[in-house]
Amino acid sequence: MRTPIIAGNWKLHNTRDQAIALSTGIKSQTSDVTDVEIVVAPVFTALNAVADALRGSSIKVAAQNCYPQAQGAFTGEVSPQLVEDIGCNYVIIGHSERRQLFGEDDAFINRKVHALAETGLGTILCIGETLAERESGQMFNVLRRQVCEGLKGLGIESMVRVVIAYEPVWAIGTGKTASDQQAQESHAFIRSLLDELYGAQVAGATRILYGGSVKPDNVDGLMAQPDVDGALVGGASLKPADFVRIIKFQKV
Ligand code: 13P
Questions:
Q1: 7 in Cβ contact with 210 (< 8 Å)
Q2: The model scores a pTM over 0.90
Q3: Which terminal Cβ of the chain has fewer Cβ within 10 Å, N or C?
Q4: Is 172 in the pocket of ligand 1 (CB under 6 A)?
Q5: Is 167 in the active site?
Q6: Running along the chain, 252 residues long, what does each successive block of 10 average in pLDDT?
Q7: 176 CA from centroid of ligand 1 (Å)
């Protein structure tokens, strides 16, 4: 009922030529995949080239960030409209690296949610607790705040293009994946929040991805959880064989 999404967040990696090679490699090795939505998120400088290289395939392209204004005196920023103009499908917002390294807060991320709702782009809204927050018993409060503040004021009609990515900060780039049970617990909680905010139909239809050290050897167990609808993959998405294996996760 919810088509799984496997998305590769390339972060600050790959030149334009490397990005084209990686995306065309993924394309040629996944032509038999029909039941998974594949997304790649290159750096801004490679977005156009990757969107062109993948045009005509079912692989979708995401930007890793955007600024919540269409245009104006905002030196160094890129708007959702410009991302859409070059043929992208999604924008990732609220990634923990942006929250932690660039000081983005829920209110700013909420402005991006609204800016994206003005376009035809999908939103991949990242949330997740730090280790200190988990260990001090704050995890559910943090997730509640990030979901409620992040989606504040967003109409139910816009939810059809929203995807949530649960990425526990302690699992990102550390090799420490959440256990299947930890992922399921958080995903079920996030779905219950969507139910509170938007009702059962939206809660049942919204894809919730897991991110944080997803690898070929743990994807099958994660994807077997009833509320895990896909993965947002960092490091392993840069290795074609690993990413293709993750896309072709085994139903256990
Ligand atoms: P890793 O898969 O490298 O842990 O990164 C996860 C992530 O941050 C995806 O957005």
A1: no
A2: yes
A3: N
A4: yes
A5: yes
A6: 97 98 97 97 98 96 98 98 97 98 98 98 98 97 98 98 98 93 98 98 98 97 98 98 98 81
A7: 11
